[in-house]
Amino acid sequence: MKSETINPEQFYSSNSNTISAEHSLGSSLFQVHSKTSKKENTKTFNPLNIALHICTAVLMLTGAFLVYKWQSDFEQFHLDQISSGWGLPFVIVATVLFLFKSSLFFYKLYLYYNYKPVEAVSDDLLPTCTVIVPAYNEGKLVWETLQSLADSDYPEHKLQLLAIDDGSKDDTWYWIQQAKLKLGDRLAIFQQPENKGKRHALHRGFKLGTGDIFVTVDSDSIVKKDTLRNLVSPFVNNEKCGAVAGNVQVLNNKAILPKMLNVSFVMSFEFIRSAESKLGSVLCTPGALAAYRRNAVFNCLSEWINQKFMGQPSDIGEDRAMTNMILKQGYNVLFQRNAYVLTNVPEAYKGLYKMFIRWGRSNVRENIAMAQYVFKNFRNESKFGTRLLYADQLFKIAMSYPFLIFMMIFVVLHPLLFISSTLLSILIVSSFSVFFYSKRYNFKESLWAYSYSIFYTFSLFWITPYAIATANKSGWLTRGLPQK
Length: 484
Prior knowledge:
- One of its GO terms (biological process) is extracellular matrix assembly.
- The chain crosses the membrane at residues 48-68, 88-107, 394-412, 418-437, 449-469.
- It is found in: Cell membrane.
- This is Glycosyltransferase.
- The protein is α/β, with parallel strands linked by helices.
- It folds into 2 domains: 42-114 and 394-469, no CATH class; 129-393, Spore Coat Polysaccharide Biosynthesis Protein SpsA, Chain A.
- The chain has 18 helices and 10 strands.
- Strands 3-2-1-4-7-6-10-5 form an 8-stranded mixed β-sheet, with helices on both faces. The chain has a two-stranded antiparallel ribbon with strand order 8-9.
- The two termini are 29 Å apart.
């Protein structure tokens, strides 16, 4: 561990502000963020946001009108499909998948309404906990992350904080040192001799950690005061619990893409992972906030750090891989809706599609790995839920290219029918996201679900096919120096 202090003028020669004049503690940031989000609904008037909502509504309603107007054309198109050699089998497969997805949706809805987060336990019952924060080119945000963790409502004598700089090229190490100066013995800091990737930084943390529970937190994330307590409590009440996923929301939710992503995150976590948790089979514990039982980690640590895909070391998808290996051991993986974390997301298209490509490649790899055990006797209790969720993932991958080909043919032969039917489908499907988000939070922000669906459908539809074709490629893609 390095102890020398870096001169702040090395990075901020023109900045005379002290740390105390900067942002407040992480929990305060979380509260400010929450209050700001609520005030935006009544006090902020953004013409661009209003214009986007209006354009989105016009597009979807126009699509619905055109589908109604061209109903006879759609009927003829379906008849032509059925009469063609390839059309009938495709229609049959599409119908079966539609029935499967519809049934699965209502089953998840049932599971969601029966889900409840585990209540937080008292101080004397809480286990010892090691929080690992790997950092690479995060700048001052890592300081805020560590401050929010230190301000947690968790017994200090049971909490070990580790910050590991993964060979950053900016001032990240300086801000980690400043956090050390402020927190003293509560925080241990380490610096990797060179950038080896997030997996290796976490591996070092796992080897150094002394807690019964490991918690991993991204260095661009802020936790709520009661997050750690809520996240760790399921391990106390359930000895079969091997990992717990936190509830991720967007920190930088001022720009348009983050606003869209925040609605998407709420659906992904508070709806989908709530349902998966009822089955004891959350498929991915997010890197932004996750907790693991120590024994479960060390049972697969060697396999995890040495994981390869097509002969190459795996340097992406470390969170999904760890989840997969813990599920394989027969443990339950749960979700805690009351364990909130705010994290930074890309604000530009390039950063967004790179993030999705990385996630897509990881999804392909881990579904291949999951196939090796999911239909075996990996768990004593029911394995139906895990297999059902896996089948859903498998169908998405398997049907990616057939649906892409069908879409391209549809676009070439009947472009207006394609656009109108797609817009109507978005209106129908995304309305659930709007209803869900507005019920959980507020109506105004929920409208971004429509815009996000249109944006994703027409500009990111290629992600899954591309991720499948390039699943063997490595690289984080988004780990460059932040743009000032």
